[in-house]
Amino acid sequence: MAHSISEETRRGISAVLAGERRGLRAVLLFAGPAIIASIAYMDPGNYATNIQAGAGYGYTLLWVVLTANLIAMLFQALSARLGIVTGKNLAELSRDHFSRPVVLVMWVVSEIAAMATDLAEFLGGAIGLALLFNMPLVLGMAVTAVITYAILIVEQRGFRPMELVITGFVAVIGLSYLAEMLIAPVDWLGAGLGMIRPEMPDSQALTIAVGIIGATVMPHAIYLHSGLTQFRARPGNAAERARLVKFSNIEVVLALAVAGMVNMAMVIMAASAFHQGHSDVAEIETAYHTLTPLLGAAAAGVFLVSLIASGISSSVVGTMAGQMIMQGFLRMRVPIWLRRLVTMLPAFVVVALGANATDALVMSQVVLSIALPVPMVALIVFSSRRDIMGEHMPSLPVRVVAIVGAGVVLLLNFVLLAGTFGVPLPFGITA
After folding, report:
1. Among 63, 283, 67, 59, which residue's Cα sits nearest to residue 181?
2. Which residues 6+ apart lie within 8 Å of 393 measured at CB?
3. Dist CA 423 CA 431 (whole Å)
4. Distance between CA 387 and CA 46 in Å, rounded?
5. What is the 3-state secondary structure (H, E, C) of the chain?
6. Predicted confidence band of residue 106 (pLDDT cuts 50, 70, 90)
7. Tens digits of residue pLDDT in 156-199
8. By the 8 A CB rule, do 279 and 56 touch?
9. Which of 195, 322, 392, 403 has the most CB atoms around it within 10 Å of its CB?
10. What does the pLDDT read at residue 238?
């Protein structure tokens, strides 16, 4: 990965850290890492789950989306802090502090997770292109591959060009769902109550809630964020490092707030369009074809544009994360075209075998659920060690909340996996 920024940007960051520059333009110098990481929370894997939540239960499960987003903010903030304080990313720290067998297992699990992530993201972009331009899915995949590789070449030029490209994609996704909110007949009172009133109507709602929370904190996003911040700025002392952590926390909150609003907008759109009369809508293709007669061709087109932007940008970010994971664990760097080829092969295999694309998206989330404990537990371990974090170790309440949040996410992942593989659960829970 490229670690360079312009000399002008470097001087600007140093001036802000030294307290010599203030204001909005000063803060914007630090924007970028959390925006890139936030793409993981708007990837195509979220689309199917959010559509199911809105279509099946209206606004009832919006509080789950809000809770998931708050958990995500905490872990992304911890990952960013780790990179800032140590100058190393999570994979590098794992390599330095764990035994070789553990490191190899972590790497294998993380690589599988990277492939599963890219499967969902790559298929999402291809499905959007295939539906929007009425082309075969395989051709949509080929176009997605070319576009994502072209964008990855931009990353070789340094931090800022890639950050600006990804910010553009975030803007497209956000504006698309803003347009959907203006088109869809939203019950804003019902949506507001859904965000603040915890409710779980039945076991199927629990299944969907597990899907929302259990796959929210993405393994590759945890690895990636620590790497994006490790070279972003070089503070000269503890005070500057503390100021950098503060700026990072602000960016995480803002970037993931946007991602959270996009996810809630997905649920709200599905609730407004499908809940009354089309509550069985569960697939992206079905949602698109159903949107056209309900809200018009414009709403359906905007939906696909957001899906394409999500698929392409998240596939780019997923490849960046995969590269960082391999370099961190193995000290090995492969050409970006080879990395791109390896991670997209599973998607072509799935389509070649004739598998249902949406089913493949769901199964990719199951794989991510299996892999998630690896980076999540490692992040908590390193963040809680004073010999690694020094005076920048998170406070005890923050560490406790992180442990509780991890426990919730991992428990729900277990419920998801148990349901997937038919393992009976206590208290009549089904998934």
Report:
1. 59
2. 383, 384, 385, 386
3. 10
4. 37
5. CCCCCCHHHHHHHHHHHCCCCCCHHHHHCCCCHHHHHHHHHHCHHHHHHHHHHHHHHCCCCHHHHHHHHHHHHHHHHHHHHHHHHHCCCHHHHHHHHCCHHHHHHHHHHHHHHHHHHHHHHHHHHHHHHHHHHCCCHHHHHHHHHHHHHHHHHHHCCCHHHHHHHHHHHHHHHHHHHHHHHHHCCCCHHHHHHHHHCCCCCCHHHHHHHHHHHHCCCCHHHHHHHHHHHHCCCCCCCHHHHHHHHHHHHHHHHHHHHHHHHHHHHHHHHHHHHHCCCCCCCCCHHHHHHHHHHHHCHHHHHHHHHHHHHHHHHHHHHHHHHHHHHHHHHHCCCCCHHHHHHHHHHHHHHHHHCCCCHHHHHHHHHHHHHHHCHHHHHHHHHHHCCHHHHHHHCCCHHHHHHHHHHHHHHHHHHHHHHHHHCCCCCHHHCCC
6. very high
7. 776 778 888 889 999 999 898 888 888 888 899 999 999 999 98
8. yes
9. 322
10. 83
CA angle 355, 148, 90 (to 5 degrees): 90
> Taking a C-beta distance cutoff of 8 angstroms, is the pair 43, 310 a contact?
yes
pLDDT value for 407: 87
Rounded to an integer, the average pLDDT of 236-254 is 88
* All residues at 6 or more sequence positions from 8 whose CB lies less than 8 Å from its CB, including other chains: none
The one-letter amino acid code at 427 reads F
- Per residue in 287-297, pLDDT (tens digit) is 877 777 777 78
Q: How is residue 260 written in tokens? A: 């959270």
Nearest to 304 by CA among 279, 287, 316, 282: 287
Percent above pLDDT 70 for the chain: 89
Q: How many CB atoms lie within 10 A of CB 292?
A: 14
Domains of the chain: 7-428 (1.20.1740.10)
The confidence score (pLDDT) of residue 47 equals 81
C-alpha closest to that of 241 among 386, 82, 92: 82
